[in-house]
């Protein structure tokens, strides 16, 4: 008896998480990249706490964006190479929910972890304590959007041997609104203003991405497989 759609997607999610745990380097690379860049910025900008605190929201968000790019290329590549991705496209299960499970797994091992460790790096850059909860919440929302948008680029380039740079060229312009409103939310709180408008826009972006990005990913996967 074939499993239901939700059961099938939960199996995909569990499978992707197990595969990620078997490759701890793939999980550790974004975190290591985050830590290295945060450690290097004080050397370039100078150790003045006021200067670092002023640049901290933008620095942390740019690093989170680049860390997401590091993992986007591997979202579907392993399944494409072993043929299971083609079987997924032929499955009677809804492709929308299947690719949503893929992107959720990628977000759990990248965006969620970066959001959880971001307070440590925020303290290193001198960000005010009042801005740290907004930083975490904005990263939770924004990194989910980045994963969904990055999935579109990964699906379009899954058949290419070196698609990493092409993914960056394709999806980086679509990352910019998330970067702008995410860093603006943290800057607003650090400056004593309300960040609810910026967070609401990030939430709207996430709803929009959940509604449309899986459809675009599914269409891109079909194009890549047929090509």
Automatic annotation (TrEMBL):
A Gene Ontology biological process in which this protein takes part is: cytochrome complex assembly
Molecular function per GO: heme transmembrane transporter activity
The membrane topology of this protein is:
Multi-pass membrane protein
For whether the record's keyword set contains Transmembrane helix, the answer is yes
Q: Which residues cross the membrane?
A: 31-52, 58-76, 97-122, 134-158, 165-190, 196-221
Read off the InterPro entries from this record. Answer: Cyt_c_biogenesis_CcmB, Cyt_c_CcmB_bac
Q: Which domain of life is it from?
A: Bacteria
Compartments where found: Cell inner membrane
GO CC terms in record: plasma membrane
Tell me which UniProt keywords the record has, alphabetically.
Cell inner membrane, Cell membrane, Cytochrome c-type biogenesis, Membrane, Transmembrane, Transmembrane helix, Transport
What is the protein name given in its UniProt record? Heme exporter protein B
Species of origin reads Parahaliea maris
């Amino acid at each position: 008896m074939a499993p239901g759609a939700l059961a099938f997607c939960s199996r995909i999610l569990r499978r992707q998480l197990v595969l990620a745990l078997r490759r701890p380097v793939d999980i550790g690379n974004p975190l290591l990249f985050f830590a290295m860049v945060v450690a290097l910025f004080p050397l370039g900008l100078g150790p003045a706490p006021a200067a670092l605190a002023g640049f901290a929201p933008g620095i942390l968000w740019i690093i989170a964006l680049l860390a997401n790019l590091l993992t986007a290329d591997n979202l579907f590549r392993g399944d494409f190479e072993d043929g299971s991705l083609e079987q997924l496209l032929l499955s009677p299960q809804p492709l929308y929910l299947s690719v949503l499970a893929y992107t959720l797994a990628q977000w759990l091992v990248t965006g969620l972890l970066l959001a959880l460790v971001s307070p440590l790096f925020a303290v290193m850059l001198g960000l005010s304590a009042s801005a740290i909860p907004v930083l975490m919440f904005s990263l939770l929302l924004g990194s989910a959007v980045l994963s969904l948008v990055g999935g579109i680029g990964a699906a379009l380039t899954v058949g290419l041997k070196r698609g990493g740079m092409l993914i960056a060229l394709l999806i980086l312009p679509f990352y910019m609104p998330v970067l702008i409103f995410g860093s603006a939310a943290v800057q607003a709180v650090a400056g004593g203003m309300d960040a609810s408008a910026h967070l609401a826009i990030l939430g709207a972006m996430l709803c929009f991405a959940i509604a449309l990005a899986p459809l675009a990913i599914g269409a891109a996967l079909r194009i890549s497989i047929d090509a």
